[in-house]
Automatic annotation (TrEMBL):
Accessory subunit of the mitochondrial membrane respiratory chain NADH dehydrogenase (Complex I), that is believed not to be involved in catalysis. Complex I functions in the transfer of electrons from NADH to the respiratory chain. The immediate electron acceptor for the enzyme is believed to be ubiquinone. Transmembrane segments: none annotated. InterPro entries: NADH_Ub_cplx-1_asu_su-1 (IPR017384). It is found in: Mitochondrion inner membrane. Residues 1-28 form the signal peptide. It comes from the Eukaryota. It is a single-pass membrane protein. Residues 56-66 have a biased composition (Polar residues). It comes from Rhodotorula graminis (strain WP1). Residues 52-74 are annotated as: Disordered. Its main location: mitochondrion. GO terms for cellular component: mitochondrial inner membrane. This is NADH dehydrogenase [ubiquinone] 1 alpha subcomplex subunit 1. It holds the Pfam family MWFE.
Length: 89
């Protein structure tokens, strides 16, 4: 039984729209990852290294080749601190 040609137009539109959406999502992920593919199955070590890279270079995917960290690296710790003042009576 032949397929009516009227069914090919919606099929083509759906195919094109899925392709455009997939390409757009792939491009958006690459742009947010500095042009590199997304990372999968990250463990705790890799997450900590990504946080360190974020503090060193300002980008999760950026890495520095400098042997000495910049001076601001000493004060932008990931540990949140609070001011502890004690009053002794």
């Amino acid at each position: 039984m032949p397929v009516p040609f009227e069914a090919l137009i919606p099929f083509g539109l759906l195919t094109v729209m899925f392709a455009v959406t997939g390409t757009g999502m792939s491009a958006a992920r690459r742009i947010t990852n500095d042009g590199k593919p997304t990372r999968h199955t990250l463990d705790m070590w890799e997450e900590r290294m990504m946080e360190r890279d974020q503090r060193l270079t300002g980008s999760l995917r950026g890495q520095s080749t400098e042997p000495i960290a910049p001076k601001k690296f000493a004060t932008n710790s990931i540990w949140q601190t609070e001011n502890v003042t004690r009053t002794f009576a």
